[in-house]
Amino acid sequence: QLVESGGGLVQPGGSLRLSCAASGFTFSSYWMYWVRQAPGKEREGVAAVLLRGEDIAYADAVKGQFTISRDNAKNTVYLQMNSLKPEDTAVYYCVTSSPHYWGQGTQVTVS
After folding, report:
1. What's residue 98's pLDDT?
2. What is the mean pLDDT of residues 40-61?
3. Residue 76 C-beta-side C-alpha neighbours within 13 Å
4. ∠ CA 100-72-16 to the nearest 5 degrees?
């Protein structure tokens, strides 16, 4: 199970920190991703972190703005989002590597 939290309404230029708590599987065995879906748009991969955080990747749209991290001791992955823009408005999901467990999503609205 994956449970996201930390979304909400924020003004442009603001910051949010999303969390995704995992349970029921060996969290440290999976790459972790953050994916977002804006209204009327396709899902977009935002960031990825490997098993122990030793490698990280970002979509070009969020490089330098978002930071992904994980704490395997807490079975949690984070997404720190700074300098938020209206175009960052979306539902944000955490996802594992195959077989791709998904959380329920958390709404981020920048307005």
Report:
1. 86
2. 93
3. 14
4. 80
Cβ-contact 16, 82 below 8 angstroms: no
pLDDT of residue 99: 87
Classify strands 44-49 and 32-37 as parallel, antiparallel or unpaired.
Answer: antiparallel
Structure token digits, residue 106: 């958390």
Predicted local distance difference test score (pLDDT) of residue 54: 83
Half-sphere exposure of 51 (CA within 13 A, CB side): 5
Is residue 58 within 8 Å of residue 47, measured between CB atoms?
yes
